[in-house]
Amino acid sequence: MTDFKAGRTAPDFTLSSFTLSNELKAGPLLLTFYKKTCPTCQLTYPFFERLHKQYGRKFRIFGIGQDPETKEFATQYGITFPMIPDPDPYLVSKQYHLATVPTAFLILSGKKIDFVTIGFVKNELIELSRRIASLTQEPPFALFKTEEAVPEFKPG
User: Fold this and answer.
1) What is the DSSP letter of 110?
2) CA dihedral defined by 144, 102, 39, 82, rounded to 10 degrees?
3) Distances (CA, A) of 55 to 15, 71, 82, 127
């Protein structure tokens, strides 16, 4: 869980060559946190990848890994958006008051948090997709395929 809710200001940070305030100059983004051994992250991240493939021309997604092996996770789950390690002692994860992953923050210009989703909640991911579609002025798409056996909820 996190106590960072919609309407709150996202803390600025720098990891590797990524600085949140600099990235927001190019527009809103989705900041996602994960750990490679987390089964709920393993379920959720391919759907974040679908969002990236659908809206990636106009919208950016970044994965913040609580592991140094971000390339391994990205390869295993087919993730093509940038993955940045938040190494132990997890300073950025602590700034965002994370107690569980996956957690994702839709952050608008000015560092305003617009939407937060924690764990895997199918309806929240559908709402997230709608919000990104609205921001990009793209038509919404079916994030989940009818033939997929996707749970409604899986805690992080």
Assistant:
1) G
2) 80
3) 24, 22, 15, 14
Show the low-confidence residues of the chain (pLDDT under 50).
Answer: none
Pick the closest to residue 108 from 116, 120, 100 (CA basis): 116
Report the C-alpha gap between 127 and 59 in whole angstroms. Answer: 16
- pLDDT for residue 68: 83
Look at residue 1 in the predicted model and tell me its pLDDT. Answer: 60
Rounded to the nearest angstrom, the gap between the alpha carbon of residue 133 and the centroid of all alpha carbons in its chain is 15
- The pLDDT, as a whole number, for residue 45 is 98
0.85 cut: is pTM over it? yes
At 39 the three-state DSSP class reads helix
Token pair recorded at residue 77: 């789950």
Q: Given the DSSP bridges, would you call strands 60-65 and 29-34 parallel, antiparallel or unpaired?
A: parallel
